[in-house]
Amino acid sequence: MLSISVYSASAQFRIGAKAGVNIVKINAISFSDQxxxxxxxxxxxxxxxxxKKLSLQPELxxxxxxxxxxxxxxxxxxxxxxxxxxxxxxxxxxxxxxxNYKFVGPLYLQxxxxxxxxxxxxxxxxxNGEQAFKKGAFSMIGGVQIRLTKISLNARYVAxxxxxxxxxxxxxxxxxxIQVSLGLVL
Length: 186
Prior knowledge:
Layout lengths: L1 H9 L2 E15 L8 E15 L3 E15 L2 H6 L6 H4 E18 L2 E15 L14 E13 L2 E10 L13 E12 L1
Antiparallel strand pairs: 1-2, 1-8, 2-3, 3-4, 4-5, 5-6, 6-7, 7-8
């Protein structure tokens, strides 16, 4: 009982908000082989595990992923679809759970899993985009965070683990993203 009291007294909590840019690519034959831009915004809670060294950081973020249908499909459907229909915008409610490790000075290393819930699928791919993507996506995150009192700068790589293609199993679609964000501790 005493150890629980000592642990809870030493635990540190920080709550904050963050926003930034997503640089996203979906690896698949069906999509262009270039990175597209999106955004993310939301909040985080940091729970100190080992004071000033190790913490757990769950987050709740709204993330937009964008991509474009591959050029090989535009030649097949050139008279049927417009360039706006070739753009695919996916909005996810993402829940990363990260472990922060203080490396040196204000530099922290971050790693952990993320689950994304597909909330909105842009009307594209001949207005059937809502049928094309799975409703959930698992990812792994690795990155760095620089903390300056109440402000943090984050850079992360997000690697999609599961196939998000909900049409068939012939082509595996996996996302990858670079996230850069600015956070503010409230």
